[in-house]
Amino acid sequence: MNRERLMKILLAPVITEKSTRIADAHRQYAFRVARDATKPEIKRAVETMFEVEVDSVRVVNVHGKRKRFGRTPGRRPDWKKAYVRLREGHEIDFMGQD
What we know:
The protein is of the alpha+beta class. It is built from 3 helices and 6 strands.
C-alpha cells in the first residue's frame, strides 16, 4: 500500500454522542472511510496518520436514507463507517489542545 492511497482512506471522523461515549468507555473511534477501503488499509491509515497502535477494526456499510424532493423520490448515497479500537495507552485527540 502506498502512502497516497492511505491518505485517501480516512475521509472524516464521526463525532456524535454515541462515538464520544464509545471513545471514552472502550478506546474506539469512528471514521467515515472510502467505500472500497479494507480493514488492513484502514488499520494502516490510522496508524500512519495518528501515530497510534490499532487493536481491531470493525466496518459498517451505512445505507443512504430515502428522501423526497417535492414530488420526486430520491436517495442519499451509501457510505462506509469504521470503528477503530486502539491498544491500551493510546489515544486520539480530535479537539486539539492549545
